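Dear support,

Our group has been running a series of protein-ligand predictions, and this particular one with adenine is the one our PI (initials K.S.) wants archived with full inputs and outputs. We had some confusion internally about which version of the output was final, so please treat the block below as the authoritative record. The input we submitted was:
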Amino acid sequence: MSGWKLGIIGGSGLYALDGLEDRREHTVETPWGPPSDALVSGRIGEVELVFLPRHGKGHRLTPTDVPYRANIAALKMAGVTDVLSISACGSLQEQYAPGEVVAADQFIDRTVSREKTFFGAGLVGHVSMAEPVCARLSALAANAMEAVGGKVHRGGTYLAMEGPQFSSLAESRLYRQWGCDVIGMTNMPEAKLAREAELPYATLAMVTDYDCWRADTDAVTVTNVLEIMAQNTALARRAILQLAHSLNGTPRTLSPQGIETCLDFALITAPDLRDPVMIDKLRAIAGRALGV
Ligand SMILES: CSC[C@H]1O[C@H](OP(=O)(O)O)[C@H](O)[C@@H]1O
Ligand SMILES: Nc1ncnc2[nH]cnc12
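Confirmed final output from the archive:
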């Protein structure tokens, strides 16, 4: 086998992934509860994939209610090596038109009502989020998206808002002044949790609308988003399969950014004072670093 096992988190409009060989569905449980839905696993040649619809099939979960910790833990427990998010997003800049893709590499987290860490009392950890995205995975995903005809902008800042309401005009203008490129409701704390689980993470943010800041363009609605996402989804599916095809024959090596060992520099609680219950719970995502 190539050693690649891609975890794919499908966002709005992407609730299933066809075309996998040896397709299986597993209902799983994690120490943080059940993930958004059953995991669907399969392979393309030698590359394994595990698909999870972020909002559940039929889009049952709000961005606030998505069980981000359980989702990342379920993918880690399934043995995935890398996590690629596919997300709908609003454009905050003229140059990102609906139908195009931003391979975002930075985030601003404005979410306020979510569990954002696996750590806690009895086992404290602080990972670096200076480079929140795995540059290698992001480039591979961007290449795959371009190979199937997508227009990709490499790099960009994704503003994660709480939602579920879309932004006011004043907020949208503020985020533009901050230099943000796209806006969505889900990539945080997902990217933070992936890092805590030592999983390389990247996102293809698929532009569906111009939010509400652009003169003479109607403000975003779910109807606009789903209309564009219907076209984007076909492209996203092709890009995922292309990514897997492109990795066949390339044995996986560790991420050049050291993401798979980042907890070596993150755990601060004195070993003899660590809470055994927390250690046991964290075994699922941090067993390597904890030596359990
Ligand atoms: C249906 S529009 C708003 C919704 O779409 C995006 O979700 P995802 O990132 O899972 O594609 C956005 O973040 C909101 O959750
Ligand atoms: N304009 C927008 N704001 C937040 N999330 C979105 N998802 C898609 N479009 C969005």
